[in-house]
Design a protein that fits this description.
This protein is mainly alpha-helical. It has 4 helices and 2 strands. The protein has 2 domains: 34 residues; 58 residues, no CATH class. It has a two-stranded antiparallel ribbon. β1 and β2 form a beta hairpin. The chain is elongated.
Length: 127
């Protein structure tokens, strides 16, 4: 097919399609169904409270898997690199400072909600 014939076929298809739609619309406006009112094309008013409630309800189902997602795939295995902790013992008698309290939630198989700082922040999200 050449460009001219392709354009002609497309124009013919559009005319047939639009002609059928307008004919159906004209027929639908003139025919009443058993005394029922003619359908209108106006949008109905939206209830904001119901829309917000539905959105927050659905958001909980979407966010919950992200909060529970296991962040360390090797947690609980011998290959877990986060299971190793490093501690520094200062000379002045202060308690040792180590990495184990920070990595323990992840090496135990926890998700983002189990992290020390991010967990309480994620608690604000539904789900």
């Amino acid at each position: 097919m050449t460009r001219k014939t392709t354009g002609a076929v497309a124009a013919l298809g559009a005319a047939v399609l639009l002609g059928g739609v307008t004919a159906q619309a004209a027929h639908a406006e003139t025919e009443t169904l058993g005394g029922l009112p003619v359908p209108t094309t106006h949008l109905q008013n939206t209830d904001p409270q119901q829309a917000v409630g539905s959105t927050t309800g659905a958001l909980g189902y979407a966010v919950a898997p992200v909060k529970d997602l296991r962040l360390d795939p090797w947690a609980g295995s011998g290959a877990d690199v986060l299971n190793n902790g490093v501690a520094v013992v200062p000379d002045n008698g202060v308690a040792p400072v180590g990495t184990a309290p920070l990595t323990a939630p992840l090496s135990g198989g926890g998700g983002a909600k189990d992290l020390p700082l991010a967990g309480p922040l994620l608690g604000v999200l539904p789900g």
